[in-house]
Write a structure and sequence with these properties.
With about 90 residues, the chain is of the alpha+beta class. It has one domain (about 1-85): Beta-Lactamase (2-Layer Sandwich), CATH 3.30.450.30. It has two helices and five strands. A five-stranded antiparallel β-sheet has the order 2-1-5-4-3, sandwiched between helices. It is globular and about 35 Å long. The model has no long low-confidence stretch (mean pLDDT about 90).
């Protein structure tokens, strides 16, 4: 897990990396635990809604979510057992 975080930290503009289990509990992060837990909770809720949309549109399986804001970008990759959250 540390190797994954370190690999993303080395990239320019990365503010944070969080790795969660499939239920949304943070396993590892380079952010403070309270911040990681808060972000993971919001992301887990977003994933649930995203899956509902994908299902309703009959578009297969949700794999990735990308949010662009005026302050940055959040990328969420969904794997079988893990959720990877990158704040840029």
């Amino acid at each position: 897990m540390k190797n994954i975080i370190r690999r993303f930290e080395e990239r320019e503009g990365i503010r944070g990396v969080i790795i969660c289990d499939s239920s949304g509990l943070p396993i590892d992060s380079n952010l403070e635990i309270e911040v990681s837990e808060s972000i993971a909770a919001y992301v887990t809720s977003l994933i649930g809604k995203g899956k509902q949309v994908v299902e309703a549109l009959n578009e297969g399986k949700l794999n990735f979510i990308r949010l662009e804001t005026s302050s940055g970008e959040t990328m969420i990759a969904l794997e079988e057992q893990l959720i990877l959250i990158i704040l840029k």
